[in-house]
């Protein structure tokens, strides 16, 4: 098989090739869907195969391809990158199954462009995960922006087109800020790639570095949903639910959050940010986002939009963890990529299943749906409470680490933010669950959707629970998170524990 | 043979231009055949000259055997060779595209078109290979006259646009001539290399300042650098599509080459020349923003693309004005990238106009369903103008931004970024409408009844697809282009 | 040759004046033929400038018998600018030809040669 060093590139390319094949198989839906599944399985296998090496402390690199003198397209699988890649690949497989069921049940059009764009998006996401330097990260980041657009405007309604335009305005503008930041960073520190502890310390004056940090955060902050750059996310809920599920709960938004982790840990370094005071500012911005988004969620009557605001808040957990900078906070933030991914995707799957079966979109109409679709709502309930930090779902694990990390960093107030957010979570999810099971209207028959729609959400809910009980299950995600966090912190403090 | 390459590159299309009208009297197809053959030969010769220059250094050719500085000398160094390849290859690609346009013309008309087109290519090639300042003027005027004639072939409106270009272009040429007159007065020579040797001694004189000012004004008009760009929008909009495609892709780039050649290979650094470059830099930044902003206000697609060109020319001149190796690399790479990209945009928009009579942005609804390949090429090229990876435009923008940030010139960085975002808006409008809009009922019905396939004829489609592929290839291979050609084309002392 | 009775460098002043007249003619009048005339005057200005560069006080015409001693170049007026200007004159003639052809076509197509009227007709 492929040598380890070829696998990161192969993992990126698999779905690109699949995208071409999908586009060519438009007339034969079953063949077309086969390409998707084949690619997803191969991709997951490739990414998972890198796990033993990375856990042992090796870093797997693909050969760099020089693009600009001094800069190369360079893919590398380190602990953090592999964590993100594993999450994205696993969830793509499940989302593909769900997509098939969802699209066919509703008979939606444009399925070929849907599956093809999806494949390109996942390709770009893996590219972002495995990027070894800023230019590679940027290239795949922009490709992700462009490839997501057809998915957002999928239904071609005026509302969808407007959402698509809003999305592009936000992401392209942020992309320009990111481009300037990336080039500036490369001008200050030529040829540097991501390294734990950062590479910018001492390379320029403090005000310059602070401005550079601001540019970077604006650049990734749009996708990461940091307020006030979050405006595109609720509007983008007009996309088909599987799109919202994978891209806006896992790939696109996580790319932004992942970017912030890379910038904090691998470009600037925790110590440099503490010196600049930038860590504090970011932590405050993230906290504000958490609280405000949670409050907005309370007032939102459309189920998917409430989930969108919840996502915005949860993403800022990751940004907050990055900003706090202690090992536990970083580990919690990194693990939350997986944790939130599993939980949120379940909830989106449930929302889509409910829409498919009962054509219900608004929370006010959800009364009794839990009695009609107990499996679906059960999964929803488990994950909803998981997001609030209640065991057994995995949200508890990352939240605990974040809390410990806040205390470690000596910033107890942020612990209060986490607690408050947990309460707000309960506040905006509990009524849904309560109404679903104990409210009126829907018939109490066991009427869940067929396996294509129900199986994925059961699997992801189980995943959430299993990871909550045993975080290293299967793919050692928790171990990867801690390994990455430790390497970032150790490098910063010169290796001293 | 090799030592004659510089002159052959110019003579082959020139000789063909003399022959083609006679051939055209007998048959349009024969005339076209001669034109294509001559251009193919010129392209091959240019490539050979470039390879020779890269391998063994610049080629020198003395016209009539008279040694420089008394005789006229042609010099093909990697920069000139690269530009020659650009001109000749584009000449060929667009010539292939002209097939369907020539079909309806009377024999003398088609022969005449081919002849004038060949003269245009000759003129541009001459500008690029010459090593003599006055010879550059001669070829500049040859190419300009041919351009005036070709641009006037698009109907009533193009006549007026062409006349306006004639007036401004003649002012430009005359100013340039006057400028080199001043240079001659103070150095006594017209040979570029000789002038470069003699100018440092006299660079402090007022005559030198006047010379630089005149040359800059002259070339700036030819370049259509804001605010002296007035002739460009009308000329590009009303001319026949292949003419616009070629002129937009190549002619302004050759003027940019002339600017680069004179500033970095003839004029001494420091003093007046640096001041001039600084001024050009500000004009370029203004061009980048103003061009894109004005493009936003247009309703006709071709006019929008014309203003977009004004903006992109700003990018190139910005690189030239900064003058560092990184900046010049970005400028030269953008010369190549923009040529390919703009040609692709004009040829696909023109093809769409040819087939569907649609010229307005508003009427582009649903075009992608009717002409999918042309629209796909347009979209790829549009992505390159905005600077999205992995298209070519991303890489030239990278170099330019890196050069600007290296200098700490934040206003210029903002101009580049702002221009990109504006470009995204006006190009996205077209792309969104064409893919996601609904085609007007009447048009769809009439096509269904005609039963004919709607996509462009092969002669037009092949160049468009080639150019779109080129946009992507140049992006992916940009490092190869830079390290193997452009790096050698830079001035030896590394610019400023 | 113009000798001492006239101010120094009068040729250059003449050239400058012609340049300005030519520019005025090209930019201000609205009749296209007037613009063309202005263009010719502009080109003449440049020609006068170059010729002036060639002139020398008491210079001889640059003609010499073939064979014999190489001429003392400083005695002769400089023939190079004259040669350049022959080319420039040809270019001017070519440009005038193209311009006249355009003017004839414009006259036939629009019925007017006045720029203001043309712009009005174009924006319809």
Explained architecture:
The complex is a heterotrimer of chains A (497), B (496) and C (124). By secondary structure, chain A is mainly alpha-helical. Chain A contains 20 helices and four strands. Helix content of chain A is 74%, strand content 2%. In chain A, helix 10 (241-268) runs parallel beside helix 13 and helix 14 runs antiparallel to helix 19 (451-469). By secondary structure, chain B is mainly α. Chain B is built from 21 helices and two strands. Chain B has a two-stranded antiparallel sheet. In chain B, helix 7 (156-187) packs across helix 10 and helix 10 (231-238) crosses helix 13 (301-322). The longest helix of chain B is centred in the middle third of the chain and has 32 residues, at 156-187. Chain C has helices at 10-27, 32-54, 79-110, 115-122. The longest helix of chain C has 32 residues, at 79-110. Chain C is elongated, with a radius of gyration of 20 Å. Chain C contains four helices and no strands. Chain C has 124 residues and is mainly α. The model of chain C has no long low-confidence stretch (mean pLDDT 86). At the B-C interface, helix 6 and helix 7 of B face helix 1, helix 2 and helix 3 of C.
Low-pLDDT runs of chain A: none
What summary fits the major beta sheet of chain A? 2 strands, antiparallel
Total number of distinct structural domains of chain C: 1
Q: Total helix count of chain C? A: 4
Question: Largest protein interface?
Answer: B-C, 26 and 30 residues
CATH top level class name of chain C = Mainly Alpha
Major β-sheet of chain C, in short?
A: none
Distance between the termini of chain A: 39 Å
The CATH topology label of chain C is Helix Hairpins
Secondary-structure class of chain A: mainly alpha
Count of extended strands of chain C = 0
Can you tell me the residue ranges of chain C where pLDDT is under 50 for at least 5 consecutive residues? none
Query: How many E strands of chain A?
Result: 4
Cα-based radius of gyration of chain A, to the nearest Å? 21 Å
What is the CATH architecture descriptor of chain C? Answer: Orthogonal Bundle
What's the N-to-C terminus distance of chain C? 56 Å
Mean pLDDT metric of chain A: 84
Strand order of the largest sheet of chain A: 1-4
The geometry of chain C reads as elongated
């Amino acid at each position: 098989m492929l040598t380890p060093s070829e696998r990161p590139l192969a993992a990126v390319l698999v779905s690109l090739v699949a995208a071409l094949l999908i586009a060519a198989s438009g007339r034969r839906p079953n063949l077309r869907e086969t390409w998707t599944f084949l690619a997803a399985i191969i991709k997951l296998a490739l990414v998972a195969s890198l796990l033993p090496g990375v856990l042992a402390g090796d870093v797997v690199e693909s050969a760099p391809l020089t693009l600009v003198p001094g800069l190369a397209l360079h893919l590398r699988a380190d602990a953090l990158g592999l964590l993100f890649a594993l999450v994205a690949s696993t969830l793509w497989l499940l989302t593909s199954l769900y997509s098939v069921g969802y699209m066919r049940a509703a008979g939606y059009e444009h399925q070929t462009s849907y599956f093809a764009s999806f494949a390109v998006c996942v390709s770009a996401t893996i590219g972002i995960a495995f990027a070894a330097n800023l230019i590679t990260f940027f290239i795949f980041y922009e490709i992700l922006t462009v490839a997501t657009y057809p998915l957002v405007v999928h239904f071609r309604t005026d509302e969808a087109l407007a959402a698509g335009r809003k999305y592009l305005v936000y992401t392209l503008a942020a992309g320009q800020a990111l481009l300037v930041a990336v080039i500036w960073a490369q001008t200050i520190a030529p040829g540097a790639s991501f390294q734990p502890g950062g590479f910018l310390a001492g390379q320029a004056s403090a005000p310059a570095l602070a401005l550079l940090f601001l540019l970077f955060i604006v650049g990734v902050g749009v996708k990461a949903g940091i307020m006030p750059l979050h405006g595109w996310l609720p509007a983008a809920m007009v996309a088909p639910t599987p799109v919202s599920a994978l891209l806006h709960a896992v790939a696109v938004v996580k790319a932004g959050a992942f970017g912030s982790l890379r910038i904090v840990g691998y470009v600037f370094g925790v110590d440099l940010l503490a010196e600049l005071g930038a860590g504090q500012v970011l932590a405050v911005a993230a906290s504000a986002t958490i609280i405000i988004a949670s409050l907005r969620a309370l007032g939102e009557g459309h189920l998917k939009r409430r989930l969108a605001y919840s996502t915005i808040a949860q993403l800022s957990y990751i940004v907050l963890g990055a900003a706090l900078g202690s090992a536990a906070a970083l580990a919690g933030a990194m693990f939350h990529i997986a944790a939130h991914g599993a939980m949120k995707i379940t909830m989106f799957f449930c929302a889509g299943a409910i829409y498919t079966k009962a054509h219900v979109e608004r929370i006010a109409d959800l009364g009794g749906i839990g009695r009609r679709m107990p499996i679906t709502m059960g999964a929803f309930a488990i994950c909803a409470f998981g997001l609030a930090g209640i065991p057994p779902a995995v949200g508890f694990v990352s939240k605990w680490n974040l809390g410990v990390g806040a205390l470690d960093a000596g910033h107890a107030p942020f612990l209060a933010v986490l607690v408050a957010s947990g309460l707000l979570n309960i506040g905006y999810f509990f009524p849904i669950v309560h109404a679903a099971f104990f409210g009126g209207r829907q018939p109490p028959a066991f009427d869940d959707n067929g396996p294509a729609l129900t199986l994925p959400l059961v699997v992801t809910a189980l995943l959430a629970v299993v990871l909550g009980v045993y975080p290293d299950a299967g793919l050692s995600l928790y171990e990867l998170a801690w390994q990455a966090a430790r390497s970032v912190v150790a490098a910063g403090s010169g290796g001293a524990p | 043979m090799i030592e004659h390459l510089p002159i052959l590159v110019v003579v082959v299309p020139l000789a063909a231009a003399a022959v083609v009208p006679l051939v055209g009297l007998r048959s349009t197809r024969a005339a076209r055949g001669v034109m294509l053959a001559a251009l193919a030969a010129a392209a091959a010769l240019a490539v050979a000259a470039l390879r020779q220059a890269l391998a063994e250094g610049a080629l020198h050719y003395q016209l009539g055997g008279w040694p420089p500085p008394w005789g006229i000398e042609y010099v093909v160094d990697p920069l000139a060779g690269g530009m020659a390849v650009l001109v000749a290859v584009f000449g060929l690609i667009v010539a292939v595209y002209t097939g369907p346009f020539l079909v309806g013309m009377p024999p003398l008309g088609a022969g005449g078109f081919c002849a004038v087109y060949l003269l245009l290519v000759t003129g541009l090639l001459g500008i690029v290979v010459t090593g003599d300042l006055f010879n550059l003027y001669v070829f500049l005027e040859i190419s300009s006259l041919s351009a005036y004639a070709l641009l006037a072939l698009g109907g009533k409106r193009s006549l007026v646009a062409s006349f306006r270009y004639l007036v401004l272009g003649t002012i430009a040429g005359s100013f340039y001539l006057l400028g080199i007159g001043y240079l001659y007065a103070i150095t006594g020579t017209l040979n570029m290399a000789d002038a470069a040797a003699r100018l440092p001694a006299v660079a402090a004189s007022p005559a030198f300042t006047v010379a630089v000012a005149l040359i800059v004004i002259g070339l700036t008009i030819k370049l259509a650098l804001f605010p002296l760009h007035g002739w460009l929008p009308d000329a590009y909009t009303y001319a026949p599509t292949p003419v616009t495609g070629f002129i937009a892709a190549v002619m302004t780039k050759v003027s940019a080459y002339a600017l680069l050649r004179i500033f970095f290979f003839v004029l001494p650094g420091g003093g007046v020349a640096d001041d001039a470059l600084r001024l050009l830099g500000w004009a370029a930044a203004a061009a980048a923003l103003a061009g894109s902003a004005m493009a936003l206000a247009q309703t006709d697609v071709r006019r929008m693309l014309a203003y977009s060109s004004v903006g992109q020319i700003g990018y190139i001149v910005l690189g030239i004005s900064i003058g560092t190796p990184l900046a010049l690399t970005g400028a030269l790479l953008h010369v190549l990238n923009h040529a390919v990209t703009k040609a692709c945009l004009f040829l696909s928009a023109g093809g769409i106009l040819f087939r569907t009579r649609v010229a307005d942005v508003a009427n582009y609804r649903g075009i992608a369903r009717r002409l999918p390949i042309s629209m796909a090429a347009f979209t790829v090229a549009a992505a390159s103008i905005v600077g999205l990876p992995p298209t070519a435009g991303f890489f030239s923008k990278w170099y330019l931004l890196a050069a600007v940030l290296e200098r700490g010139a934040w206003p210029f960085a903002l101009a580049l970024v702002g221009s990109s975002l504006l470009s995204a808006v006006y190009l996205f409008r077209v792309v969104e409408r064409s893919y996601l809009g609904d085609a007007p009922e009447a048009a769809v019905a009439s096509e269904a009844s005609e039963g004919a396939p709607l996509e462009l004829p092969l002669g037009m489609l092949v160049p468009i697809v080639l150019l779109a592929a080129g946009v992507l290839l140049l992006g992916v291979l940009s490092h190869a282009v830079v390290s193997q050609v452009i790096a050698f084309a830079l001035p030896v002392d590394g610019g400023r | 040759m113009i000798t001492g009775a006239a101010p120094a460098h009068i040729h250059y002043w003449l050239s400058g004046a012609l340049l300005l007249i030519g520019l005025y003619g090209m930019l201000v009048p609205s009749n296209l033929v007037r613009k063309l005339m202005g263009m010719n005057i502009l080109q003449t200005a440049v020609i006068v400038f170059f010729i002036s560069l060639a002139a020398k006080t008491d210079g001889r015409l640059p003609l010499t018998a073939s064979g014999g001693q190489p001429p003392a170049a400083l005695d002769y007026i400089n023939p190079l600018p004259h040669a350049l200007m022959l080319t420039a004159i040809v270019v001017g003639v070519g440009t005038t030809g193209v311009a006249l052809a355009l003017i004839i076509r414009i006259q036939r197509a629009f019925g007017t040669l006045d720029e203001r009227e043309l712009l009005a007709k174009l924006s319809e």
